[in-house]
Amino acid sequence: MDTNSAAAAGKEEKMGLLKINSPKLGPIEYKEDDLITLSSPLLGFPELNDFLLISNDTSYPFLWFQSVEDPNTCFILVEAGTFFKDYKPVINKRESKVLAISDMKEVKIFCIVVVPENPKMSTANLRAPLVINFEKKLAKQIILDDDTWKIKTPLFQ
After folding, report:
1. Contact at 8 Å (CB) between 39 and 139?
2. Contact 157, 139 (CB under 8 A)
3. Region at 59 (left for phi over 0; alpha for psi -120 to 50; beta for the rest)
4. Which one, 37, 56, 76, 121, has the greatest CB density within 10 A?
5. What does pTM read for this prediction?
C-alpha cells in the first residue's frame, strides 16, 4: 500500500504495524494478519471489505467489527449463541464454499446489534448473520431463507 492511500484512509504504518484512528474506539494498531476480509460487502457498505474484530473486558459479550477502510464505520456484534441458545441457522453448500469452510469448528456466527437511545431496547439481526471463518480470515453476511429469524430480534426479553 502506498503512503498516500494509507493516509487517505486514515491509516498509518509503523514498524510492521498498521494504525487507524476510530472515532468510537480511538487509535487501533493491528497487523495485516489480524484482518478479516468479507467475501462480499455488507448490505449498504459496498466499498468496505477489511475489518478487525475487537473484544475487550469492558464491552464483552459485545464485540466491535471495525472497518479499516473507513474508520467511521464500526458495527456492534454478539456471538449469536450467547443470547439465542436455540439459534442454529443452516449455512447452505454455496455459502460454505464461498467461506472455504471445511469444518464448522472453524466458524462462528455473529449478529449485528442495533443499540438505540435506550440500550434495553437493543435488537439483533438474526435474519442476516455474519459468519466468520477464523481459520481462513473470511467473513460473509448470509441472508437466511428461513423467515423464522427476524431482522430486529430483541436482545433483552
Report:
1. yes
2. no
3. alpha
4. 76
5. 0.86
